[in-house]
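Two entries, shown back to back:
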Amino acid sequence: MVSADLTQTASGVPSKGGSNVPLATAGLLLGMLLSVLDQTVVAIALPDIAADLGGMDAIGWIITAYVLASTATGALYGRISDRFGRRAVFVTAVAVFVAGSALCGLAQTMPQLIAARTVQGIGAGALFVLPTIALSELYPRHLRSRVQGFTGGVFALASVGGPLAGGGITDAWGWRWIFYINLPLGLLSMALAAFAVRLPKSGGDGKVDLAGAALITGAIVALLLVAEWGGRTYAWSSGVILALIGALAVLAALFVWWERRAASPLLPLRLFTDPTLRVVLPATALLGALLGGSIVYLPTYLQAAYGMGATQAGLALNPYVLTFMAVSSLAGARIGASGRFKPYLIAGAVLAVLGFTLLSRLEPGTAYALLAVEIGVLGAGFGLLMQNLVVVAQNAASPADLAATTSATVSIRGLGLSLGVAVFGNLLTRGLQDRAPSPAATAAAIPDVLFWGVPAAVVLVALMVLLPQPVNHPT
């Protein structure tokens, strides 16, 4: 049955406000898939890239530049799309992403590749935020959980499948094709969105808060560099790290000061007065950190402990991915029917505690079948949490604040994910300091690192218990 919010075209295709909903959904999800894939697909090709271009000392910046650019610009796109429309901004962002991908494939030096990855990341900043906003507008409220559940599945599939795809493409055609493959897929996403997405502008002729965007971008870059460099590239007491911490404090204070005065703020501070958002936003950051730590270091553990190659490790994570996708989809459907989020969110956080507890007790010789069950538990927890937190935030927002709220939630999760990767990486580096480098040492250290997910997940349980019943604003 077609919802009252959707009409039926002569051809029988659902539409809303002139949008072709199925094709719009396909175009938006394809863009989302590309943005997440390019966070992970490159990792497996780094040795080939370094062998071809040189610059091994800067190779980490191939990933870092992309993450910094996409995370720092994510919050801006919601407000820009209020001003210029979801379709126009999404199509433009995909075009920037595609251009950056082409430049990556053509790069002849490491600095050229890093610069091209930055361009690619600037476009990618929109490719998770804007679909999350647009899908909530294309579908009626009672279908939000189900639809956003699909986006959680896309995230899980792309996050874990990225290294697998990257390995296959690199082995078959060379590393440049992990970027060239984005061109036809990106163009298809653009064509589908340009044809099918028809959503009204919701921000009138208000100005875009460029000053706020510059301040928050600078603060995010400083924070991520502290997490990435602190204790590894530079000592915590070094001038570089202390200067970055000082810059972070100053930029954050200036951002808050400016947002209180801006006519059309990038991040309206009134959002933080809502009791639901005061819980959801920190919970989302914490969830992002747990996602980042598990997505990056579980494949490493599989390779170190079981002697798997990258492709085998990707396939071995299927229990995590499939459980995540199945639970996200099924829970979204049930929540959409009942409107009761809190029990599912609490259950997800408890499963996350259980999953990290089990993984922290891994020992040499643990059977893969047992590990598969444990990562399936973790995937189920994340499937209950990830996109349902976004929907709770969206339901608590007024229509005027929908884009700002969604942008804030998705961007904070992305920031948490980046911080989680960096913090867990720091913990792993410390755990390996007194051990001779070897796969066995890495396999022994990773469970100790994953143990730190337990207290973080316990805090997540407490936040879900404290989550008030949100006041649903009319759409």
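entry 2 starts here
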Amino acid sequence: MGRLGALFLLFLSAWAQTHTVAPGETLFSIARRYGTTVEALARLNGLEDPNRLRAGQVLRIGAGLELSLPQGRLRLLPPVQGQALGLRVEGYRAGWAEFLGVRYPLALGEGGLWGFLAVGALVAPGEYPLVLVLEGEEVSLPLRVAPGGYAKETLALTPSLEQLLRDPGLKAERRKVVEACPKAGPLRLRGPLRPPLEGGRVTSPFGTRRRYGTLFTSYHEGLDFAASLGTPVRAAAPGVVVLSERLKARGEAVVLSHGMGLCTGYWHLSQRRVRVGEEVRAGQVLGLLGNTGLSTGPHLHLEVRLQGVPVDPAPWFQALPLP
């Protein structure tokens, strides 16, 4: 470890950039407490309706954390269960990051390096090291992951859906989805994601702890949108089709790669209208909304993954998660 290794103590004073919603609190009262605005908090946290908060929900407050480095400075968003967080390293031209056992590329841009990290939705709240390797120097910085405040639900399944969940091939299907997404390549999007449906509404948020009938408990890895059967499903960002096929659990499925290990997945379609290798633009029709695979009704399940780790798509519709 080089000369950066001794700097981690300076980082400890930069925490406390999240707020856990207490019963009776509103976004307006929270904004007043921290000297910000309702609009700023809604944008930072991907809130479609600022009037709908739940007790225990964790909100990001402010622009993030900061640390001085010998050749510049590090800025990043505070880590929260199930969320992506961006970082910027000014003053360096090459490097990479590792967090929670996953390695992430850092891209060279104006002023230095930048990139995205992911916190899995099942990562226990607590302290974890962020490792940065910058032009041959290594530093390990402690980051405290805040809880996501996710709700719980139980899904009633028909016998046929329960049988599908018992299929041993579902693990291989998951591997196929993850491995389809390239881990490198330049980022293709320059702004927030676009809604994948016109007039669709979110019926199930990311991260909800789910009991699947009498079988097991997991969590919801994406956002569910309700709309009529046959509604066009559109690309949330420009990308390359890396998967387009019928899967057992995910039904008619499409995965787009957007670079830097970022992919979006579109499940339960009734039809697919793109092929592997095809370059698509934001808003292009990928297929039609359906009810295929492990689905209890017509809907689109949208996922965002970073290096294979599912993260909450909601904040990406407001802005890229960068400090």
